[in-house]
């Protein structure tokens, strides 16, 4: 019998197609910040996604602050983080869709009753909650099963820091080896792998021409096996369970 009893799902572009919406909002706000600081560079949502996929806005802004030597006092920084959450949540409530095939798989897993399931994200908890509710997944993931690196920890952080996965395991009363994570980004995969959690990579949310490249990126980061569609999840999970 398998020792895997807990499934930990990343949210953005793993359960729901939120990253394009989020990076559109992030780009709007990042460009406002750059303009206010007298910096001429501007970002599109796609450019931010390419450079910062898997990071939350706090981590992204820290990187931009270093890159451009921005003068952002902590209170101003925190205000921008809150404004970004509001903008992204607005876009999520208007247009969010689940990843293809995930609904059927979550229903099957939930009905089986074998696995405890939780969401482990870099994004702010209220953004994740908005995504889960909009997608109709709150029946699988109540609020106490949603963990946010930006909100749930005493010191906010972002993947690839493993802190949020270790925190989730502690709260759920599970050892990392009893869990399996599902991640679509390099930073998320590194976060789970560094926490000692076997990780399934998911590339189905990327454009077809990008999927092979991301398959190699996630494999190098430690994800094994890797799936391109949620219909492959059962077989991927079985591979891990046979190893444990």
Defining key terms:
244 residues; Rossmann fold; 2 domains; 6-stranded parallel beta sheet; 51% helix; globular; HAD-SF_hydro_IA; Haloacid dehalogenase-like hydrolase; HAD-like_sf; hydrolase
Helix-strand blueprint:
Elements: E1 6-9, H1 19-36, H2 45-52, H3 57-68, H4 74-95, H5 102-112, E2 116-121, H6 125-134, E3 146-148, H7 163-172, E4 179-183, H8 186-194, E5 199-202, H9 208-221, E6 226-227, H10 233-243
Could you explain the architecture of this structure?
Keywords: Hydrolase. Pfam families: Hydrolase (PF00702). Helices cover 51% and strands 10% of the residues. The chain has 244 residues and is α/β, with parallel strands linked by helices. A 6-stranded parallel β-sheet has the order 3-2-1-4-5-6, sandwiched between helices. Helix 8 links the parallel strand 4 (179-183) and strand 5 (199-202). The longest helix is centred in the middle third of the chain and has 22 residues, at 74-95. The protein is globular. It starts with 5 loop residues before the first strand and ends with a helix.
Mind describing the biggest β-sheet?
Answer: 6 strands, parallel
- Give me the strand/helix succession: EHHHHHEHEHEHEHEH
CA(first)-CA(last) distance: 10 Å
Classify the helix fraction into a percent range.
Answer: 40-55%
Number of strands: 6
* CATH topology value of the largest domain: Rossmann fold
Measured on Cα atoms, how large is the radius of gyration? 17 Å
Shape, principal axes of CA atoms = globular
Mean pLDDT reading: 94
Low-confidence spans: pLDDT under 50, at least 5 residues? none
Instruction: Classify the beta-strand content into a percent band.
Output: 5-15%
What is the C-level CATH assignment of the largest domain?
A: Alpha Beta
How many structural domains can be distinguished in the coordinates? 2
CATH homologous superfamily (4th level) name of the largest domain: HAD superfamily/HAD-like
Helix segment tally: 10
> Going across the major beta sheet, what is the strand order?
3-2-1-4-5-6
CATH architecture descriptor name of the largest domain = 3-Layer(aba) Sandwich
């Amino acid at each position: 019998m398998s020792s895997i009893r807990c499934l930990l799902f990343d949210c953005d572009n793993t359960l729901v197609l939120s990253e394009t919406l989020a990076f559109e909002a992030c780009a709007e706000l990042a460009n406002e910040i750059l303009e206010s600081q007298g910096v001429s560079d501007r970002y599109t949502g796609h450019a931010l996604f390419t450079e910062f996929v898997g990071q939350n806005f706090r981590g992204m802004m820290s990187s931009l602050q270093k890159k451009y030597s921005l003068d952002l006092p902590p209170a101003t920084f925190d205000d921008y983080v809150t404004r970004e959450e509001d903008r992204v949540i607005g876009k999520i409530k208007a247009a969010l869709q689940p990843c293809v095939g995930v609904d059927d798989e979550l229903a099957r897993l939930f009905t089986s009753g074998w696995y405890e399931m939780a969401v482990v994200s870099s994004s702010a908890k209220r953004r994740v909650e908005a995504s889960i509710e909009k997608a109709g997944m709150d029946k699988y993931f109540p609020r106490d099963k949603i963990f946010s690196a930006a909100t749930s920890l005493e010191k906010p952080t972002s993947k690839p820091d493993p802190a949020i996965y270790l925190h989730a395991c502690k709260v759920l009363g599970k050892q990392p080896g009893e869990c399996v994570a599902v991640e679509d980004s390099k930073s998320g995969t590194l976060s789970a792998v560094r926490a000692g959690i076997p990780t399934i990579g998911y590339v189905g949310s990327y454009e077809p021409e990008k999927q092979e490249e991301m398959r190699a990126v996630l494999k190098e980061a430690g994800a094994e096996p890797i799936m391109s569609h949620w219909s492959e999840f059962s077989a991927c999970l079985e591979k891990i369970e046979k190893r444990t």
